[in-house]
Fold this protein.
Amino acid sequence: MNERLPPLTALRAFEAAARHLSFAQGAAELHVTPAALSFQIKSLEAHLGQPVFRRLNRAVELTETGRILAIGTGEGFQTINTAWRNARRSVDTKSLTITAGPAFTANWLAPRLFDFAQKHPDIEVRFSATLRLLDFDRDEVDLAIRFGEGDDAGMFSQDLIYEWMTPMMCPKLAEQIKTPADLQQATLLHQDDLNFMAQTSNWSTWFKLSHLAPAPRGGPRFSQSDHALNAAMSGSGVVLGRFSLAERALRDGQLVAPFPLAIRLTPRYRFICPQGAQTRPQVQAFLDWIMQQVDDMYQDTGERHFINQNDLR
């Protein structure tokens, strides 16, 4: 039996045709004619001594041997493609792809991006705002900013923001709500995207810690925290707002947080990238910049009495 590998061009032609189950589509992907691709596959079959396709009238299908070969070649070329992309990215110092949640991107990152662009005009920043956990290699992402308790084993991980929550409302509504007890008569806004956390981050806990009667039932529910904040800014009710997402609105006077009691959450924002990638110039520049932004954010958080979420379990 011939143990030598066939030409790489023949394997590449086979892999494309096997993936599409079409000589025409495989040829189009490789920018060759169907006749040229067919020639490469015939060369492969001669080298193997077995057919890898059954030629039907208007289609092809893999033989058993072809199916075995397709699994290995598919994985092999995917590995080669990933290695090539990673090699190109390793020498790229001019672009930076970041993934973060939609609310954090819109409320925290995007308003600050102009500052980063001014300080680093040579770096092109691309955002992927999604809650889906992206793969650094497959999705060609340089770094991620994630909120949660985190299991970042094998990655470079830097804590960024330790989140806390407290009642927030628009200034006009605050004229009517002078004390925590006044919240008993207010419309309370709820955020369902926090349900992954322990229930110590809800209105019931805040009312209990404030030595109030149980929180009133009802009130609008929102699937995203930033939507609840927008509703609070419009005067629709009071939200147990997350500081990171509300920080700009608090600073601009669109929201106020009049009561000192705040719950410091266990989940936190982390800066995550593959181990070693933090030394790439554009990644290091972004990390230095975002750490300074976080420091500036914490300069004025008001008079707060913090209770840690972990202590409530």
